[in-house]
Fold this protein.
Amino acid sequence: MALILVIDDDDLVSRTLQRALKMYDYQVMTANSGIEGLQLARRHRPDLFILDIMMPGVDGYQVCRQIRGDPLLLDVPVLFLTAKAKDEEKIEGFKAGGDDYLVKPFNMQELELRVKAILRRLGPEKVEDTTVNEVVVGNVVLDCRTFKVNTPYQTILLTNVQFDLLYHLMSHADQVFNSQQLLQDVWDYPRDTGSPELVRAHIKNLREKIEPSPADPIYIKTIQGHGYSFSSEATRG
């Protein structure tokens, strides 16, 4: 049974999430501050964080950065659940290391679908899918053991979801995927669920990590009106 840690300074939200998620057969712990949540997580390593952003003291962005910097917790997925709805706020969440983002007020069924999808990606079948040691496209090498990508410009450590997205694109180089296909193939969301904003934000964040000029990408191309593709052309030579 998966263990979910809810970190939210609103006690009503925490208790509501705890009751609802228990109905879906998850174990749920709650914390009302970032510091308390990190302490709990280090004692009882969760399978997923559901994390608010606007909290006194240490906010959700800072908590997420600490999670990604902690060897015990760095690969635990983070779902931001917050009232912050602006695109730049979502981008900031993904830069901090978040895997997914849901805006309050939210639909409990959608939350449960996202939780299920995130946890399913971490199951044994995911390990079997990535038994290859590396994916190589031209001069770009994705190391499946270390979650690092090597380009002629730098070596970068990726978060879980960044790795999953890049693995999928590089494994199908030059193939074009629209947002809905990526939500199904990478995020494992059922058809017609999830937001294209999630894909756009992670593509943007991934470009900022691997592209020599994120505003003019040479690896992850946008094919206008169709979707995204990892180009093998730019990696030759």
User: Anything to note?
Assistant: Residues 124-130 have pLDDT under 50 and may be disordered. The first helix runs from residue 11 to 23. The chain has two domains: 3-122, 128-235. The domain at 3-122 is CATH 3.40.50.2300 (Rossmann fold).
